[in-house]
Amino acid sequence: MLESSDVKLDASDRAILNVLQKSGRIRNVELAEKVNLSPPATHARVKRLEDLGAIKGYAALLDRQKLGNDCMCFITVSLELHQADKLEAFFENILALPQVLECHHLTGNSDYLLKVVIKNNREMEDFISNKLVTMPGILRVSTSVVLREIKSDTAQRL
Description:
By secondary structure, this protein is of the alpha+beta class. Helices cover 37% and strands 19% of the residues. The protein has helices at 11-22, 28-35, 39-52, 84-95, 121-132; strands spanning 71-79, 100-105, 112-118, 138-145. A hairpin with a 6-residue loop joins β2 (100-105) and β3.
């Protein structure tokens, strides 16, 4: 796995990444024009950034509400035990839940933070009651429902 210091970025690499973060489907010729490089040089740099893992992949960003997923929440989870086999079982259970978009290991009062997107409050209740808290090893769950998204961006500052 690459550490952040393993990927050395120059100004052209940063320019390429900034454009790709906003427009991942841009054609190479257009990208080259935007970053003031030749198309072959741009293509080679993009390939290098992909090979180094600086670019993890490309995806379409979907509007969850237009697709009928009106409820988003953040759920903190605390586990009873932190033994390797218990953690692995928790990870496997979380990976199997398509409603969980993100899972982060935390410091502080809780062990994990989940970002969950689901159709409505009734389905959220079912998800929490019948899928999440029934997992072995769960000590505590706390849910915060998102009322309004103020900022939702995927672009990182480079």
